[in-house]
Amino acid sequence: MTKNSNIEKALADYDAGKISRRGFLRTLGMLGVGAAVAELVGMSSFGAVKAWAAVNGAEERAWALAQAAAAKATKKTLTLLIPTGSIGNMTPYADKWKNELGITLEFIEEPDEVVHTKGMQEAVAKTGRYDIMMPTAMSYPDWLDSGLIYDLTDWVEKYKPDIFHDEWGVVFPASHHAQLYNGRVVGLLCDGDQITLLCRSDQLKNPAKVKAFEDAFGYPLAAPRTWKEYRTLAEFMHDPKNNFYGSLEYRSRYYSKWMFMQRLASKGRLWFDQDMNPSFNSPEGLQVLEDMLAVNEFLHPDSFSFTWSSNYNAFGRGEGFMNIVWPSGFKYSKAPSTGPATTGNITGTVMPADTLADGTNLYAGMFCWGYGFAVSRYSANPELSYAYAQWMTSPTISADAIPYLGGYSDPYRINHMLKPTPRLVETYTEDYLKILYNNIVNTVPDFCLPGGFEYQDALDKEVHACMTGEKKPKDALDAAARAFDRITRRMGKDKVRRSWFALTENLAEPIKKATGRAGWKL
Known about the structure:
The protein is α/β, with parallel strands linked by helices. It is 49% helix and 10% strand. The chain is built from 25 helices and 15 strands. The strands form five sheets. Strands 2-1-3-14-6 form a five-stranded mixed sheet, covered by helices on one side. A four-stranded mixed sheet has the order 8-9-7-10.
């Protein structure tokens, strides 16, 4: 029998119950099937035969396109503009592209905040220096409108990366917020950047603290379910004399806006109303700033200067009880090399809810950053570049790539969280992967709009000024609102409004209802 017929027999036998799951995985491994593919096929509710034909397809279709495009390419290098810290998820595959396709992958790393600017510079210079670029979703509107990148929709329809698949597609609404602009696919997501809350599980199980907390507050010590409970826990656990702080929540420039935005969303407010009026300079926005200011005294002293990496390092050293971070923060905290004090001592939870006027709790987190692959219009090899993007983000290759500690890419497909491979479970734990899924379905998008980077910087500047005491809350929010109005006029109100409607159309239903988005009319 041939290798393919042996695989087909194993699939059929497994569906018929003739072999155990362990025997099935062992058989596929002996036949050269990668662990990520075998695990995904073995756990699919579609059945192994159907799942094999489907899930392996996105990778195979991309590889077939790459082979054809590489054979006719005169330029045998693909140059990738990537953010610093992401390379570890990509380098493990460079040899395969070199040895099997004759294509050298050249990685150009730039700081996170510089990638957008480099792209806009290329839109003017048109040098063809980059083939593939890895921006956040906030870059797509300006990059597409400037002619820098391709609309990928036709390629997506032809080569089927399965980004909207019911079992292994990108989780909704990130599938739309982080890949679409005005309903068109402009990037393929490779990094599930949602914010979640981490706690020290050993502190939650400490008998003395369990008793003291319940005696003081009348309910069990546990991860916070609401922002009120979060504030209570930050104060209760705060022990600065022993270099242990209530929380490591960011207050530094460039990060402050996200801490504000995800709290604001949980109060049922978005960044604009349906007429593009800023809606954060409101009673809800003022309350958010007051709540943040009230927590400041229980934060790590470096919260006002943290970068993502210094934050991860401080938490991993054991310098605090809670942390609001991206999933890579859990990955780094769990690994002994980067989380010496937190390995085996962390638990996660969805972002805390806020209680609305009707008494219901609204859960809303942030999907922010969220890197993806875009294809430059000035690339000498655009189809080969697209093939790379689809191959790297396929359900199978992405499940293998994400667990590498040397990169900060995080789960984003359904199979990453609900049908994880052993490596994903080892890296994140099965419980935390389920938390990621339960959190991501209620996330709100970043400023994925024309002028998005200007909006986010204007808000961040004013929130940070409030946190440092330079401005009063109302003054800060009013100043940000005036800046937003100027940006909207310059970008064109009708243009931004159409984009805002398309972006917010894909909010989770509870958030659409609470924010009033369900009743908006374009």
